[in-house]
UniProtKB/TrEMBL annotation:
<keyword id="KW-0804">Transcription</keyword>
<dbReference type="InterPro" id="IPR052158">
    <property type="entry name" value="INH-QAR"/>
</dbReference>
<dbReference type="InterPro" id="IPR009057">
    <property type="entry name" value="Homeodomain-like_sf"/>
</dbReference>
<dbReference type="InterPro" id="IPR029062">
    <property type="entry name" value="Class_I_gatase-like"/>
</dbReference>
<dbReference type="InterPro" id="IPR002818">
    <property type="entry name" value="DJ-1/PfpI"/>
</dbReference>
<dbReference type="Pfam" id="PF12833">
    <property type="entry name" value="HTH_18"/>
</dbReference>
<dbReference type="Pfam" id="PF01965">
    <property type="entry name" value="DJ-1_PfpI"/>
</dbReference>
<feature type="region of interest" description="Disordered">
    <location>
        <begin position="329"/>
        <end position="358"/>
    </location>
</feature>
<dbReference type="InterPro" id="IPR018062">
    <property type="entry name" value="HTH_AraC-typ_CS"/>
</dbReference>
<feature type="domain" description="HTH araC/xylS-type">
    <location>
        <begin position="225"/>
        <end position="323"/>
    </location>
</feature>
<protein>
    <submittedName>
        <fullName>Helix-turn-helix domain-containing protein</fullName>
    </submittedName>
</protein>
<keyword id="KW-0238">DNA-binding</keyword>
<keyword id="KW-0805">Transcription regulation</keyword>
<dbReference type="InterPro" id="IPR018060">
    <property type="entry name" value="HTH_AraC"/>
</dbReference>
Amino acid sequence: MTVFADDGRHRVAVLVRHGVLPLELGLVHQLFGAARDPRSGDRLYEVLTCAVAPGLVRTDADFPVLVEHGTQVLTEADTVVVPASHEEDGVSGVLSEPLRAALSRIGPGTRLASVCTGAFVLAAAGRLDDRPAATHWKSVDRFRELHPRVQLDPDVLYTDDGDVLTSAGEAAGIDLCLHIIRRDHGAAVAADVARTTVVPPHREGGQAQYVPRPVADPGRRAATGAARAWALARLDRPVALRELAEQEGMSVRTFSRRFREEVGVTPGRWLTQRRVERARQLLEETALPVDRVAADAGFGTGANLRQHFQAAVGVPPSAYRVTFRGTAGTAGTVPTASDTATVSEAGGPAPSRPNGSA
């Protein structure tokens, strides 16, 4: 019996367990549900919730949710998302037999994603062995103890390893869903979803910025926002660290320390990530030559763009353009492993500084 509608939309199944976090369940439905074809206005995804035992499923709040679908949904899905639960299955490192059997029904071509400690379920099922992963920073030590084969990154908001994606704490699930939408349908569709749901299309830094520090100054306000806004308006030209510090009236040393505390990465890495994002947007939405994209994004030369773009995204700009300009609006496209990256915010490591910038 077919559960999903046979209308060509990308099919997303959300596998919930008792103790599911309502925010994590809701954000998957809200974000994928808001993704629309820019030409027809049709929904691009169909999202269904399922459980091993359909019926009332407890949440970690004072209300249950009624789940109508069983695990048959998993066999038909293009993407399966596993949100967190504080009650059972996975966090102990052991899956119940019914849950393990349910996960075994997921086909080899189905994309998997987890939110927060949902990564424990994927890891316990062996789906994360020798692959990058993220989970909530409070659970990092426990995760490493239970799953030493997983390449856990405690700092990033989410990871993308092609057909398996994971995110950190609850709100990082928003970042992950927007990333998946962008990967499937391009920057314009993802940005429209972000505007519709009133969230930023990209968050800066990783989850390291949210970990409490032993010594904190409760009176300290955000100190580098003006410099970041100033730099974003000048991505097409060299931006020196000294210039950024001057925008806040700080020494270079103080600015660098404050920037790292607030954003989670160095000014130079942040600037490179922003430039890569600008290049991605131009490659997706325009027919500009690569050298012009490089100039407009602040990389100066096509060779410099290719170096940084390959390091951050995993493919050269020309291949990225063919993939994302050619498939925007086509649901269900899953890049190969070479197209993937581990994501701290929206970019990756920069081997050098473009144009001698910060």
